[in-house]
Fold:
Amino acid sequence: MVHGNGTICVQGGYAPGNGEPRQIPIIQSTTFRYATSEDMGKLFDLEAEGYFYTRLQNPTNDYVAAKICELEGGSAAMLTSSGQAANFYAIFNIATCGDHVVASSSIYGGTFNLFAVTMRKMGVEFTFVSPDCSDSELEAAFRPNTKAVFGETIANPSLTVLDIQRFADAAHAHGVPLVVDNTFPTPVNCRPFEWGADIVTHSTTKYMDGHGAGVGGCIVDSGKFDWTAQADRFPGLTTPDESYHGITYVDRFGLEGAYITKATAQLMRDFGSIQSPQNAFILNLGLESLHVRMARHCANGQAVAEHVAAHPNVAWVRYPGLETDPYHALARKYLPQGGCGVVSFGIAGGRAAAEDFMKCLSIAQIATHVADARTCCLHPASSTHRQLTDDELLAAGITPDMVRYSCGLEDAADLIADIDQALA
Ligand code: PLP
Structure:
C-alpha cells in the first residue's frame, strides 16, 4: 500500500515483528557474530545479505535510510556521517580521476569547496553553470568525460530554485545522471525523482534531524538510471570490481541496487564515513515529525519574508514563496506546498549594517547552522562562504549585505517583533 508522507515519516523503514521493540533499536555494536568462516565469507563475497562491521553497514542506519528512501520514492539508500560525505560519495561513486562533472554554481559553500578544491585535487574537474544559464550555455558545459550533473533543489543560501526537469533532460541527453541535493525542501516539499532526477542527497543535519542534535547525511538512488545504456562511461558499475572478488554491480544487484551497493562496498569500506547508530536513532526522532515541522517552518518563512520585504531598512529579500521572487514560478512548479523556512535578505547599509543587525537580534541566534527548530542567522560572506573569491561569491548569489535567516518553529509574531527592533 502506498502511504502518505505523514505515515512514512512516523512509521516508514521499520516494521517490528512480534515482541520486538516498537521504536527503532540502536544496535550499538561494531561487529556481528557468525558461526562459521564460510557464513562470514559469503558476506564478504556479497553473496549473502547481513552485517559484519559497522564501518560499512549497521541495522539502525538501514532502518532510517529505508524511511528516507520511501519518502523520496527511491529504490535504495544509505546514511553517511554528514551531508559533505553524502555529496562526496554521490559523485565519487561515478566520477574519478580524469572525469568531469557539471554543477550549478549556486550551491552550499562547503559543497563548492569540496568540488572546486578537494575533488579537483583528486583529478575530478567541475564546470559550474548558473542555474539560470541558457540551454546553449548548459549544453556547452558538457564534455566527453562528463559523468554527472549536480544541483541543489533550493540553494543554500542564495535560495535559487533549480529547474530540475530542465537539468535532468540535459543530463540524460548526455547519458549521465542528475544528482540533486534536496536538503532544504526535504521530500515532504519536493521529490526530485518525480521530475527526472536520478540520485538525491541530503544533509540530514538540517530539517530531517531538525533539532540541531546530530550531523548526518543520506544518499538515495531512484534505481531508474540505466548505467548499462552507456556502459563504457560507468565502468565502476558495469565491469568487474577486482577489489570485490570480481563482481559486476549492475549484474548482481540490478539497476535498483547497484549504485548504493557499490557506494557501501567500496566507499564505506575504504573511507568509512558512516553515521553512528546513535545519530541515526536521533535522526529518526526528527523524521517522525518532519511533515508537521516543515509546514510550520514554511509558514514562518513566508510571514518573515513578507514582513521584511515591506521594511524600509531592508534592501532586498529572497524567498521563493514571495510572488515578486525571481524563482516564484519555479517554486510554484516544484514546491507547491512551500519550500523551506530560510529567508535571505540584505540590510540597507551593507556589510557593517548586516553585522550590527545580527548582533541586535535576541530570538534568532548567530550560528553556523540552518534549518532547525530554533531560529538562527548567519552572515555567509564572512562565515560559510568566506573561502570564496568575490567573483565566486557573486556566482553563488552572495552579497556582503546578505543575512541568511533560518526561521525555526517559534511564533511568527515574536520573530517579526525581534527583527523589527533589530532593524530599528
Ligand atoms: N548540502 C547543503 C544544501 C547544506 O546546506 C549543507 C550544510 O549546510 C551540506 C550539504 C553539508 O552538510 P553537513 O554540514 O551535514 O556536512
Summary: DSSP finds 16 helices and twelve strands in the chain. The first strand starts at residue 76 and ends at 80. Residues 82-84, 87, 108, 110-111, 152, 156, 181, 183, 203, 205, 215, 217 surround pyridoxal-5'-phosphate (CB under 6 Å).
